[in-house]
Amino acid sequence: MSKGARTAAWAAAVIVFCSAASAQDTAEGERQFQRNCGVCHVVSEDGPARAGPNLHGIVGRPAASEDGFPYSAAMSASGLVWDAATLDAYITNSQALVPGANMSVRVRDEAQRAAIIDYLETAGQ
Ligand code: HEC
């Protein structure tokens, strides 16, 4: 196979893989969110705070900006803005990113984290 043909075949395989993955992601993301986060968080607009704040519209929002939620001093002073990268770091090891915050969560599986973040980006906006 020529180099060009190999590259094209590889690119086609990646495209097929990505579209199959995104069709599954929303359902998988919702499942993983409910399992790992749903005890303490909702994403529905105007849903109640639980132990943690409502995460509706969290992607793009500065940390500790949900009106009326009693954030820790650590979270209030973090200066973070939530995007795919900061969310990934946070749920990989929340205490490493924001030491002393009132949330202690570690999602070790990269695919699970990606599905959860995808869910927050789609369902939560
Ligand atoms: C045991 C309860 C609990 C679980 C489980 C939990 N959280 Fe939290 N979460 C909190 C609390 C409490 C805060 C507020 C932290 C603070 O003020 O220090 C928080 C804060 C957050 C914030 C910052 C919100 C903001 O307005 O700045 C994000 C983002 C977040 N959690 C995402 C998640 C995700 C995603 C999961 C699942 C992987 C998860 N949390 C699991 C309790 C939890």
Any chance you could write out the topology, listing elements then pairs?
Elements: H1 3-36, H2 73-76, H3 84-92, H4 94-97, H5 110-123
Helix pairs in contact: 1-5, 3-5
The structure holds heme C.
Heme C binds next to helix 2 and helix 3.
Structural overview:
Residues 14-19 have low confidence and may be disordered. This protein has helices spanning 3-36, 73-76, 84-92, 94-97, 110-123. It starts with a helix and ends with a helix. It is mainly α. The protein has a single domain (27-123), classed as Cytochrome Bc1 Complex, Chain D, domain 2 (Orthogonal Bundle), CATH 1.10.760.10. Helix 1 packs across helix 5 (110-123) and helix 3 crosses helix 5 (110-123). The longest helix is centred in the N-terminal third of the chain and has 34 residues, at 3-36. Helices cover 52% and strands 0% of the residues. It is globular. Bound molecules: heme C. Heme C binds next to helix 2 and helix 3.
Keywords:
globular; mainly alpha; Cytochrome Bc1 Complex, Chain D, domain 2; 5 helices; binds heme C; single chain; 125 residues
Shape: globular
Classification by helices and strands: mainly alpha
Overall pLDDT: 87
Note the total helix count: 5
| Proportion in β-strands | under 5%
CATH architecture: Orthogonal Bundle
Annotated CATH topology: Cytochrome Bc1 Complex, Chain D, domain 2
Oligomer: single chain
Give the structure's gist in a few sentences.
The protein is built from five helices and no strands.
